[in-house]
Amino acid sequence: MTKIAIISIALGLAVMIVSFSILEGFRNEIQSKIFSFGAHLTVSKYDTNNSIEIEPISGPALVQDLNRFPQVKSAQPFARKTAIIKTQDEVLGVVLKGISEVGSRSPMRQNLVAGNFINFPDSASNDVLLSRKVADKLRLKVGDRVLFYFIQNPPRVRPFRVSGIYQTGLDEFDEVYVIGDLRQIRELNAWPDSLVGGVEVVLKDFNRLDPVAEDMYENLRYDLKLDKITDQYAQLFDWLQLLNRNVVIFLLLIIFVATFNMVATIFIMILERTNMIGILKAVGATDRQIRSMFFYRGLSLTVRGMLFGNLVGLGFCALQYYTHLIPLDPENYYMDRVPVFWDPAIIVLLNVATFATSLLAVLIPTYLISRIKPVAAIKFD
Q1: DSSP 125
Q2: Which residues form the MacB-like periplasmic core domain (predicted)?
């Protein structure tokens, strides 16, 4: 029974550590992919038309105003323009997202799977980044040159070179966006250097998104609108919230099972030692002294179970983190391996919660000792 109790605590703690590490890994991995395309907040011209190509705004002045907010980490201009890519055999509609040289230092680099990031010379760069899906559909590879057709008056055609291929696993980006130089979109739209399509704002703390967005909205000009990334990609963030709820329910069930096993173990220990309890009471031992014996015995089992649980849980996480032992299908899970995120605060909290619930489980059955009579206990068989 003591071995069962130790194994129960160890497995419960190990599963909780692994569950939280993988959940945080999924959340951080998906959020980083989303943030590589869209920042926490997007400021653009207010327009009732929901077109991809939005009205231009003055970029330098707006960036300067946004950087005055203490919670803003960076503000980067961008612009979007719809285009049709035509190869010898295929035709595909895409959205060209233009970024500046400052934006080239964004987390977008982590999504590259082939080639190099866009090179920003003194003039407008002809380099573009295609997604793996777009490149496969058009049968393009790094270094190929391809024609982009822009439907405007008059229509424009521009040759671009595929400098790199990215992959996020998120269809919202991979099937739509091509990354290019912001100056190309300025030239196509005949904008001066001061105009941009909008400004993407990265905050120092994403958890303060709502209050910062409210404060920023109150201080923006009347002709500007502010979009939160949680609203732009609501389905993805709702899915992450659903994962959080499912894991919490799962963890509560694990804690309940581990606690029940500990209570059952202490009860059985008391029944097995009923004769000993009667003899101890007969020679003058108090209920408190006898309870403390079983309490410290249960404490010993808890500590040993937690030690093994940490070794198993953290060991599995380390193995997956460094070796990528368990792969995933990117088509269904947005990534090619099970992600692991190390959060010392969560690990400590799980250990504290396991220790507290186990001690409570040990204390409950020990109060049965006060109801045991010495004479009946000595005769107990």
Answers
A1: -
A2: 4-215
| Separation CA 41–CA 35 (nearest Å) | 10
> pLDDT at position 241, please?
79
79 φψ region: left (φ > 0), alpha (ψ -120 to 50), beta (else): beta
Q: Which of 56, 29, 30, 24 is nearest to 43 (CA)?
A: 56
> How far, in Å, are 69, 115, 140, 145, 338 from residue 164 at the CA level?
35, 4, 11, 12, 25
Rounded Cα–Cα distance for residues 121 and 125 (Å):
6
Residue environment code for 66-78, b if the CB has 16+ CB neighbours within 10 A, otherwise e:
beebebbebbbbb
Task: Determine the Cα–Cα distance for residues 214 and 280; give it in Å rounded to an integer.
Answer: 68
pLDDT cut 70: percent of the chain above it: 91
**What is d(CA 285, CA 294) in angstroms, rounded to the nearest whole number?**
14
DSSP 173-201: HHTTEEEEEHHHHHHHHT--TTEESEEEE
Beta-carbon contacts of residue 76 (< 8 Å; ≥ 6 apart)? 39, 63, 99, 100, 102, 103, 106, 199, 200, 202
For 186-212, what is each residue's pLDDT tens digit? 988 888 888 888 888 888 888 888 898
Closest by CA to 200, choosing from 57, 79, 75, 99, is 75
122 DSSP assignment: S
Q: How many helices (H) and strands (E) does the chain have?
A: 13, 12
Q: Token pair of 137, please?
A: 């559909």
pLDDT tens for 2-55 read: 787 788 788 888 888 888 888 888 888 888 888 877 788 988 888 766 666 778
How far, CA to CA in Å, does 21 sit from each of 15, 238, 244? 10, 19, 12
pLDDT of 107-151, one tens digit each?
A: 777 888 888 888 888 888 899 999 988 999 999 999 899 999 988
Indicate whether 314 pLDDT > 90. yes
Give me the pLDDT at residue 281, please: 73
- The Cα 54–Cα 57 span in angstroms is 9
